[in-house]
Amino acid sequence: MHIDNATILWNQPLGSSCYRIGITTSAQYAYATPGQFVMLRLPNQTDPLLRRPFSIHRLIESENGILQGIEILVKVVGRITSSLSFCQPGDTVDILGPLGHGFSVPPDCSRIFMAAGGIGVAPILFLATSLFKKQFDLSRCILFLGGRSKADILCEADFFALNLPVTITTDDGSMGDQCLITHPLELCAREQRPDIILACGPSGMLACVAGIAESLNIPCQISLETAMACGMGACLGCAVKGKSPDVRRLHACLDGPVMDSRQIDFLH
Questions:
Q1: Count of the separate structural domains present in the chain
Q2: Is 139 contained in some domain?
């Protein structure tokens, strides 16, 4: 874990309210795993005072594989994300990371279902890219990509470039099938059982994905999207209820953000 005074490399619009922002980082980020995150703070930031969490979206590497930095995916929803959307190359930010636990794909897995809802696509692209670099056959996998409307469907071209089949759904039918992402996921899981399901998105979506996996006895890891104030377990603000009587509370920043879906009590 490092605190870096980092430089913005680029800020590229992605849709109407999302941005891909490249940031220089220390060499330690070369060992980051998909699902890990950073806590980011702008210079002279006082309102809000604390850093904000962002999933690592991609590692930035030179042609010879040397790490140059990381990329984050930012959706404008408040003051910090709005300020980030105006950042220019050469501007500086303060980042802490890499933090948390990422996805862990067992070595015997050959067929993976991935599910990404809205901005939850951020760590899923890092995951798919990481598997591709390891020469994993992504053509045997499926990505289920969902959003409220076409504007929420992000990075589909990046996944197609990795030879990863993509199923798209939107709530309003403006792109792909008009249904929840969990509908085709469940149908495909029953017909073409995957070795594991890996997902990131809104809590309601993750609860449904976890229920599908449990009903079909399929291992499932989910990356929680939750508010974090410190990212290091000090504030206890990112607590979720655990299923085990021995573990009443889990913390997304320390125990996750990626967890086995069977650990979490989604009903409370």
A1: 2
A2: yes
CA distance 228 to 80: 14
Residues 179 and 244 in one domain: yes
Per residue of the chain (268 residues), give pLDDT as tens.
Answer: 667 789 999 999 997 799 999 999 999 999 999 999 999 988 877 666 677 899 999 999 988 888 999 999 999 988 889 999 999 999 999 999 999 999 999 999 999 999 999 999 999 999 999 999 999 999 999 999 999 999 999 999 999 999 999 999 999 999 999 999 999 999 999 999 999 999 999 999 999 999 999 999 999 999 987 766 666 666 666 777 777 666 667 777 778 899 999 988 876 5
Q: Match 């959706």 to its residue by tokens.
A: 75
Looking at this protein, which amino acid is placed at residue 219?
A: P
Cα(136)–Cα(162) distance, rounded to whole angstroms? 10
Q: Is residue 268 part of a domain?
A: no
Token pair 């085990």: residue? 244
Same domain for 34 and 158? no
Within-domain flag for 104: no
Backbone angles phi, psi at 150, to 5 degrees: -55, -35
Model-wide pTM > 0.70: yes
